[in-house]
Amino acid sequence: MKDNIKAFAHVGLYIKNLEVSKKFYSDVLGFTCICEFTNDNGDQLAFMKSGQAVIELIQHKVWMDRHDGLFDHIAMQVDNIAETSAMLKAKGIEFEDDIYYDKNVFDKGVKYQAFRGPDGEHLEIYEVL
Length: 129
What we know:
The protein has two helices and eight strands, in the order E-H-E-E-E-E-H-E-E-E. It is an alpha/beta fold. A hairpin with a 5-residue loop joins strand 2 (about 30-40) and strand 3.
């Protein structure tokens, strides 16, 4: 079984309005829609991609609160967190706090900064040092 899993394929995210979320993930975060369809149940789905990161946006035909898992946030790796933070602020993103440095993560530490998506999802930009 070792090494059978090569990478995360995607993260599925329940959202309330597909068009609002697609616009946010494309216009604000730079993702591209690579696949969109309505399934046999009438749910609308869109796969959004940036680099190797893929997020599956899922709008159920009828909204239902989901409690399947305990994911806290989605972290997106960037090359330069200060530049990315400034670009997102210029697009109207309000961060929950300043850029935080954690020296204990990995060899040289990481910098990260958290914000929210259109449905309150906890998102994070993340630079490995």
